[in-house]
Design a protein that fits this description.
It contains 14 helices and 12 strands. Helix 4 links the parallel strand 6 and strand 7. Helix 10 packs across helix 13. It is globular. The N and C termini lie far apart (50 Å). The structure holds nicotinamide-adenine-dinucleotide (NAD) and glycine. The site of nicotinamide-adenine-dinucleotide has 29 residues, from helix 2, helix 4, helix 5 and helix 6.
Length: 385
């Protein structure tokens, strides 16, 4: 990782991949550097974004692309998870055809993980693949979805069921864009930061845990008030993700640890039809289940697990009413991470060290779900009472 000064904006560069390496630039105000950092591409660009993001950042991004002598078109989509669908994939591809884009034209994904996954998938299949630039504007997208090359859409039958591994040529993270991000969305990204700490880097987890314990209702304010901490945490997370996906882009082994909490979380999202939980919220719920399961299966020390559960319990969470252990378990068994009829779980041996495990019993899984749902319901009653 090299630190470089570009004009008046300090950027940190993290390289991802061993061949076809691409850079992730992280900085405050880094959108100002887009024109210079753009990799060599053809003459046209399509910026794919959503309504919320377009209002704030589309003119600047389009202007920077024009300054790089590109002909710029844009497509503004409705915000939300339901946009990550076949219907909107068709819209993006149709717009590319109508705009006369060629295999050298660049797709610029400007927005959160929804736009990044959808536009990335479109770039990967349009004329068998055209250049892609990711400009993530949510904390979740900055530390997770824009890095590592996973793109895709949801099908009626399940989340992320169609997709591809397709690397961008550039990821540009501007921490300033987080100023306008709603606090709840910020929290969802904070959840992914916690995940990196729990699975890979205990010091990162401890730093974030202390913020969570002190400011559970003001995570965004706390991090924006401490730009050093925000930038350090994002950079560490991107470095961790870069290290993992460089070693195992196609998720044969190591990358699976990034799914910590996700198998449980996806089931919760799906059973509530993507309407109740943000992805990061569902991941926190899932991480609590995974931590409990780690202790129940004898891997993680019970006291350590109890501390993590107590901290995660402070994370603001929608109600869990209506979720039940058995339907969640059934839903989890449809997960694409099933191998030979067995579910793969990511568990903790200790805080900062994750392992994959296929040998846990159904009874332990159901118990970890039940305990988490009961705990969440009790926390909610406590807040009301
Ligand atoms: P999102 O893309 O839906 O964005 C959240 C909301 O924030 C939207 O309403 C958006 O319009 C708004 N927004 C975005 N940036 C903003 C800004 N700077 N200011 C104001 N509003 C802004 O959600 P997300 O949490 O970024 O992404 C979730 C998606 O990412 C899920 O579909 C998930 O499956 C996917 N994901 C993919 C990967 C991967 O590796 N590809 C990893 C994690 C998550
Ligand atoms: N967010 C999980 C992964 O990128 O593999």
């Amino acid at each position: 990782m090299a630190k470089r000064t570009a004009g008046d904006t300090d950027l940190t560069r993290v390289d991802v991949g061993d061949k076809d390496t691409y850079p992730v630039y992280i900085g405050t105000g880094s959108l100002n550097r887009l024109t210079d950092l753009l990799p060599g591409v053809g003459r046209q660009a399509l910026v794919v974004t959503d309504r919320h993001v377009a209002r704030r950042y589309l003119p600047r991004v389009s202007g920077a692309l024009r300054d790089a002598d590109l002909q710029v078109k844009s497509l503004v989509l409705p915000p939300g998870e339901r946009t990550k669908s076949i219907r909107f994939l068709q819209r993006v591809l149709a717009k590319m055809v109508r705009s006369g884009m060629t295999r050298g034209s660049v797709v610029v994904a400007l927005g959160g993980g929804v736009v990044g996954d959808l536009a990335g998938f479109a770039a990967s299949v349009y004329m068998r693949g055209c250049p892609l630039v990711q400009i993530p504007t949510t904390l979740l997208a900055q530390v997770d979805s824009s890095v590592g090359g996973k793109t895709g859409i949801n099908l009626k039958q399940g989340k992320n069921l169609a997709g591809s591994f397709y690397n961008p040529g550039l990821v540009l993270v501007d921490l300033q864009t987080l100023d306008t991000l709603p606090a709840r969305e910020f929290n969802a990204g904070f959840a992914e930061l916690l995940k990196y700490g729990l699975i890979f880097n205990e010091p990162l987890y401890r730093e974030l845990e202390s913020v969570l314990n002190r400011y559970p209702r003001g995570l965004k304010e706390a991090l924006l008030a401490d730009p050093g901490l925000l930038s350090r945490a994002v950079t560490r997370a991107v470095k961790i993700k870069a290290e993992i996906v460089t070693a195992d882009m196609r998720e044969n082994d190591l990358r699976m640890i990034l799914n910590f909490g996700h198998t449980f979380g996806h089931a919760a999202e799906q059973l509530t039809r993507y309407r109740r939980f943000l992805h990061g919220e569902a991941v926190v719920l899932g991480m609590e289940m995974a931590v409990r399961l780690s202790a129940l299966s004898g891997r993680l020390d019970r006291e350590a697990a109890g501390q993590v559960v107590a901290s995660l319990g402070r994370f603001p969470m929608p109600r869990v009413g209506g979720l039940r252990p058995r339907p969640m378990y059934r839903q989890m068994r449809r997960d694409k991470k099933m191998r030979d009829g067995r579910l793969t779980f990511i568990l903790l041996d200790e805080v900062g060290t994750a392992v994959t495990e296929t040998g846990v019993s159904r009874k332990q899984v159901l118990q970890s779900i039940r305990e988490t749902l009961d705990n969440r319901a009790a926390i909610r009653r406590g807040r009301r009472g």
